[in-house]
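Re: that backbone. Tokens:
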């Protein structure tokens, strides 16, 4: 194919897209700069340890699920409860603007109004997300074959599949990178 033909084909593909077929990064700056995530795109997020890759994956999953997309999240690293609690803390702060809830009072339940606000936030998020987000932990999918089977089972349902820390899948091979 010539480059001109490629450009024409790419233009037709772009013209056939609807806003509803594009997924979001969940962060305004990325969505505006990059334009969202197209249906056939593979997005790989890489950074040093502790810089928020899992947090970003979780934000992407939640935002798309809230927007009616079906999201399959394979969470192979970290504690999902930790990420969920950080998200709840942010939502509580949004709900109660003047609360400015800090991590310690939230984690250790030092403020009596937290539970009431948290219950409301959980109900609101559950209503918004519905069944659009399916989360599987590493213990449920320990091998690459399990991951493949799960993806094949959910691929027709999912608008987006997120694999957080793909390299944590157990591989019984000499060259794990090639197998992944």
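Recovered sequence:
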């Amino acid at each position: 194919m010539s480059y001109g033909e490629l450009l024409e084909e790419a233009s037709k593909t772009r013209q056939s897209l609807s806003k509803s077929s594009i997924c979001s990064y969940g962060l305004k700056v990325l969505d505006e700069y990059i334009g969202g995530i197209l249906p056939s795109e593979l997005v790989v997020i890489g950074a040093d340890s502790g810089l928020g890759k899992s947090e970003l994956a979780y934000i992407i999953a939640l935002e798309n699920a809230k927007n009616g997309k079906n999201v399959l999240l394979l969470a192979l690293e970290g504690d999902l409860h930790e990420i969920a609690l950080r998200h709840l803390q942010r939502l509580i702060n949004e709900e109660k603007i003047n609360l400015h809830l800090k991590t310690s009072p939230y984690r250790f339940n030092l403020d009596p109004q937290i539970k009431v606000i948290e219950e409301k936030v959980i109900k609101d998020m559950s209503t918004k997300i519905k069944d659009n987000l399916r989360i599987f932990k590493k213990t449920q999918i320990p091998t690459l074959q399990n991951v493949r089977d799960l993806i094949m089972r959910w691929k027709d349902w999912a608008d987006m599949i997120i694999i957080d820390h793909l390299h944590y899948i157990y591989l019984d091979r000499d060259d794990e990178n090639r197998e992944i």
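Residues 19-179 form a domain with the Rossmann fold fold (CATH 3.40.50.300). The mean pLDDT is 83.
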